[in-house]
Amino acid sequence: MIKSTQIAKCIVVSAIITCCLSNAASGQSQQNILAPGVKPTVFLQEGVTVPNDESAPSFTPDGNRVYLSDHNAICFSKKINGKWTKPVTISISGKWKDWDATLSPDAKRMIFVSNRPLEGMPQDKPQPKAHLWYADALPNNGWTQPKHIEAPVNLEGLNGFAPSISMKGSLCFCSRGRDGNKGMCAYYAKWLGDHFDKPKRLVLNGDNDTFDPYISPDESYIIFASEKALFISYRKGDDWSASERLGEQVNVTGSWNGGPYVSPDGKMLYYSSNLAQGIMMIPVNIPHKK
Question: What is the pTM of this model?
């Protein structure tokens, strides 16, 4: 006869297995890249007080300079004696609506979103759609005049948002209603040396809308927004693993998070949340799974 204690153990084991299978099916792992007990704080610069409209930070490799978006302008701040200076608008921004600026890992190129007019259009009016543009770094923190990224990345009648760049020069971004895909989708455009390949849709969270895909410099993982939360997906050959929802320190009940970015040293996650003004940051430990 089976004893009651043995039956109880079987029930517990069965429950654990069921829970694990359920998590695997939903693509949500119990593993958390956030340290237990650590809470997010606000990334602030000198002379900047909340509330503010800052978002989408992107740092130089040494971590001492940052570009961010503020009230539809691209701003620049630098660290002096451990403190960040008050952000100032960079020379190529301020006339049109510019946002979501991101640096290449070597900081030699910036890609950003803008409604500035295309060549051949009236130059006194913004274009109706937001497209991706780029500028190359000059000495003394200057930038070349922005250039429009041509097809197949930018397409007439479609918006492009939230770019991020890998060390290979490949590009991630999100766009709505592209190539017959419904809703907001994430895309990956491989850099072919002198132009981008046709963007490929990234299916990271089933058929749910996918926003703001941040790809790590080595392309080993992508952090993105979906269902008002932040998720991570790891490279798995030429594809990506089932997404894992980040822990409750970031994805607080009632929050709406987006704009993820990881510092060049891989130790700090920055993001935007409806629960706080400004840019949030929290330490992370992300395993590089390949």
Answer: 0.87
